[in-house]
Design a protein that fits this description.
There is one protein chain. A two-stranded antiparallel ribbon has the order 1-2. It starts with a helix and ends with a helix. The chain is built from 14 helices and two strands; from the N terminus they run H-H-H-H-H-H-H-H-E-E-H-H-H-H-H-H. Strand 1 and strand 2 form a beta hairpin. The longest helix is centred in the last third of the chain and has 44 residues. By secondary structure, the chain is an all-alpha fold. The chain has one domain.
Length: 346
Amino acid sequence: MSPGAQRAWRWFKRLAPWALAAAVLLLLAQQARAVDWAAVWTALQGLSATRIAAALGLAVVGYVVYAGFDLVGRHLTGHKLSVPRTLGTAAICYVFNLNFGALVGGFAMRLRLYTRWGVAAPTVAKVIAMSMVTNWLGYVWLAGAVLLWSPPQLPVAWSVSDTVLRGVGVAMIGLAVVYVAMCAWSKRRTLRWRNHELALPGGKLALLQAITGATSWMLMGAIIWVLFAGEVAYPVALGALLIAAVAGVLTHVPAGLGVVEAVFVAVLAGRLPTSEVLAVVLAYRAIYYLLPLAIAVPAYVWSEASARRVGAARAAAVPPPRSMFTAASSSPASSSSSSKKAAPGL
């Protein structure tokens, strides 16, 4: 392309996501005016304590599983940060990732916390890359299976048939199989794209990535399914969640705010009243997004303070460099003996 076209394309790539996000938020605001929020509040109050407790338990397990993604990067890079500290750092960053987007939690905060603990920036980049691969590899496996065996009933206006959805499912499963096969048998152990490199793990570790990644998404789907109390089948709830996750990424709306709710309302239209669907999704957001954020903020502050103390202790343990003048003047015995030896020559 000509220089002018290249500049125009760069500006388009910068502005298009924000324009799309603004359009989506405008549409969501218009739809929100039509919602009976009093009925939503009544439905929220109707959620039993048992359902909420079960959802909280699943959320805890889900965060532990997701934090385990960083252990794959720890194994591959060999960095010496302890397992508990790695899990804690990953969990904190995951909360900020969910609520404020990947650039904040997935990249910037991970880089800051890991480097504060003494992990080199290139190593952190590899850990981030492997965590992303684990997450989306699990998504591809699971979404492909859902689309192939139990495609969600999408609204008629979307004009997507079950045959098309099953075809997409087969393609997604094939993509995941190719990745695992490359990890197991490829002689080329590094994938390169532009200036980026990705070291391939072994076949067993790739399978572990697929299992843990899929488990994380399945736990998120289980939280919503539990909150629906069996009124919606688990594959349906999971399928709606998987569609909502991609819609949130494409629209660049932080935390998928409003996007997740709109997708669930669209997918479950005709099955449940809109007020009940919104109540469940809002409860899911409170349990999996907001409550962990209330814990992660003080945990992040503590982690910063702890890393600062560790860094200060390391700096104090290293003696300052000594110049030859300091070394000479710090030994009076050697200076006096040398003066004695030098006296006859004078």
